[in-house]
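Forwarding these from the shared drive since the link keeps breaking.
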Amino acid sequence: MNLRKFFAELKRRNVYKVAIAYGVVAWLLMQIATQVFPFLEIPNWAIRLVIMLIVIGFPIALVIAWAFELTPEGLKRTEVADAAPTRSPAHRAWVYIVIIAGAIAIGLFAIQRFTGRTKVVKQSTVPELSAKSIAVLPFVDLSQAKDQEYFCDGISEEILDALAKVEGLRVVARTSSFSFKGKNADVAEIAQKLNVQNVLEGSLRREGNRIRITAQLINARDGFHIWSDTFERELQSIFAVQDQITRAIVEALKVKLAVAPPARPRPDTEAHDLYLQGLFFSNKSSEEALRKSLDFFQRALQKDPNYAKAWTGTAKAWEWLADAYVKPLEAYPAMKAAASKAIELDETEAEAHCYLGDSKRVLDWDVAGGEAELKRALQLDPNSGTAHFFLALSLSSQGEAASAQAQMKEAVKLDPLSPIIGSFAGIIDLAYGRFDDAIAEGRRTQLLDPNYFYQGSELAAAYRDKGMFAEALELYKKAGEVTGVPQPGLAITYAKMGRRNEAERVFDEVKTFAATHYVAGEAIASICVALKDNDSAFQWLERAYQEHSGSLQGIAVRPEFRPLYSDPRFANLLKRIGLDPTKVLATAKRF
């Protein structure tokens, strides 16, 4: 067989042209199937069917091209078409087909690449991102009644928690990932703000006991989908779906899946639903929402007393109720009991170790024991922003300045859009005399949430300590209006400005409020120090000690208490709350 004549015949019969045109159109169809079908919730099998038909059709198209010719009169056998007077229109027809198909394909590529949810940032503006980094966005509720927000958030958070335990994968914490909820931000913007390369997003529809979940993993650098799938299951299979999504992401990102823990018993389906509702409210900051979360967790435990995550959720709610809304000796024992039960049921509950550690620190003044629990939490979940955050505060109160700053830096990296972590990062900057850094961190927190004032305003404190009294007064007054709580920091600012009468007026307001609401003793003591009444300050500090105030150990680094350093009573108090006064004071005096 003469190969040269064979290839010449292929060319004469337009087989090459058909192959090129088929390839372009096939690529176009595959782009439509893989990029558009998931958004329309067309089942995943339809995508596979399109690809299979395209593959099967290729040899058929080549056979037809060999045997037939497209002419102005229609499709004719090649031998008949050869006898026709001219074939130039047919030649031009093939060219037109290729050009039109190619133009459509290029247009679709451009639209997909440069517009919509997955648009790409110019290469020059994209920072170096780790390929093994991911943010999990809250799934969108597509249920007809729009009443499954808690379920969508819960599923997203559980997938996030599972991924956080994967070795070598950096997972952004929930607070930061969920800050984009309802904002319709594009993937490139999200990736830039969270410093990740990959983003998981999805949707969920629930009708009775049937669920439909669509999930897609997107590379933020180029905007392409790395993986996508749709799952239709009974509600009882939700745990299997979560596992499937987690494993698919791990495989897509080519990271190592850590050794799986022993198989855990699946919780009761109704208990799980109640747990997800509790989880939803536990992520809010108001007392009403936190108490509502406790109710849901309790109802979940009534259905399934051995549900470890529901015990962890209970501990979490008490953690954030403590000091801010509830007296420490009411909240911390309940938190310790719940966290201990969660760990008894499942020792790998990393978050439960965080809450158990904090309860040991506060109830027993056992700083070393609390730190050991936090380190265990980080062994189980290196991506735990909460564990890094708690550990940073513990280390700072012990005089471990460098280690505290390193842990807080890691917490901010894992949860960059968390107002509470940003606020406490400012506290550590302020403790070590970095006023400009504290102000920058405080301003960043204000941008995240202009009305965020957890037990005061750290930005206002930074302004005050730098001598920017007007800015401090304005912010403290705003904090009082937003929270409805008199601000001890406002009294301190007036005292530093020499406006004693106004400082004493605010002091009286704070004491009046404290008669009917819990106010930490050290907060009131800080006003006494500013008014140069050290004896009264120590009386309030003693009260804080007796009440086991959760923030009492912060006096080791708070600038407000530096006038007490030379008083032997201060060193004695540090020792009683589990700190080494020699080490703490030596570190503090360096700043």
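-- next protein --
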Amino acid sequence: MNEIRNYKQKIKCLVVDDDEDYVLILEGLLEALPHFEFILHWEPKYAPALEKIVAGEYSVCFVDYFLGGQTGLEFISAASQADTVVPMILLTGADDPEVDFKASKAGAADFLSKDDLSSATLSRTLRYTLANAEKNHALRQKRAELGKAIELLSEQKELLQSALDNTKHGIAMFDARNRLIACNAQYLTIYGFSPDVVKPGVNIEEILRYSISLGNYIDLDAERFLKERMLQVSSHASSTYEQQLKDGRTIAVSHQPMAGGRSVTTCEDITGILADQRRLAELAREAALAEAESRAKAKFLSNMSHELRTPLNAIIGFGNSISEAKFGALGENYKTYGGFIADSGQNLLHTINQVLDMSLLSVREAALEESEFLLRGVVLEAVERYRKPLEAKQIDLNLRVQEDHLCLRGDSEKISRAIESVLDNAVKFCPPGGNVVVCAERDGAGEAVVSISDSGEGIPEDRISSLLLPFEQEESHYARTHQGAGLGLSIAMGLIRLHDGEMTVESGVGNGTTVKIALPAERVVTEGAASDSSRVA
């Protein structure tokens, strides 16, 4: 590149011409222009000139028609295809309209004839070319901004459509003339619409008639639905309703007006929801009926308790009176029979009490009367009640209460009965001369644990789970020798579970049986709190 002359930078020009003499002529003409100052560069070769013009370093470019083996038209066309922003003026040897047309088509901003070139012509052309270049630059900026806006709008449209398609509700938006703007896939799915039919621009009435043609509505209701729906649309008011479709589905529809006369319709298939509500209502009805039956059963059991216990207590009392000869001397046989009556009555009363307790537990009518008490006192009282049966069978009792001040909150009577039921079972199945171990302690998890072990025959592992079921009684293969309805352990477990506790059984044939009662740590109160307890030993 040859720099001819440096002026104060106002307009930077590139002259592409292989004739240096003419470049000097052009320089003189440019110098004569009163309103312009230039930095003028001359490049005689095609390729280097093209690189410079594509780089966009110049304000204007003058291109000679003849450039050795190539033409100025080819140069301008190549620069235009490279998307140059520099305006180019073609310099021709003669005033030829055809060349002028080709120059304009190739992308030239203007064209000048070398024969008619003057300062005035050059000034007019430059003013026109530079003004157009400025307008074109502004236009390109606007186009770039518009392109970015269109791209952003496209992204937002895709994002909106993605959000619409990922909602469980069907959504359709309409313009002020009730034409569809957009809808999501769920809207099409609910009504079985084809996206080729229900698409932007389709009127809402066309959509409704298309829905009718698909058989979505009962024939008698179709036209009435169409009229009602169009009235709702024309009123521009909010509306919410349920549609009963011909296939049995129920669709919840909400139509809401928007600014500018637009509107949005949302719909949801609530067939499953309604079915769930009906099932819940039926379950609630059944629960209420069961609750009523439970209360009736509890009332019946309460009455039966009175009706059974009152005469049975009388029988036991008369039996004791006879056996003790309270009304005068009797023969020994009468005393013996009186004792049998009293003992049998006591056994029967115990069984009746167990059956009633089990029934109350089964209908969940066993309420807790809670207070704070020492576990030691409850355990000792239970053991004391079984002192005679233990001595009668010569069973060795080993009592281990590790914490004298272990205080609990709960129903002491029910916990006592649970311990007694387990202890009764241990004494019953412990052989004469055997041993029973009763242990009360607090374990590592903070729970209060009462364990009762016996040296009895033990229980096969496959029978342990059924042992806690009502009316189950474990015996060896020998004939059954123990009395009872088999409710003791079931009742004990029910009473413990009322306190959110658990009861487990560990046993094995020949290894005896251990029953553990565990009350949760939440029921253990701080030591010393038993000072106000109702049961302190």
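The first helix runs from residue 20 to 31. The chain is about 50% helix and 20% strand.

- D.
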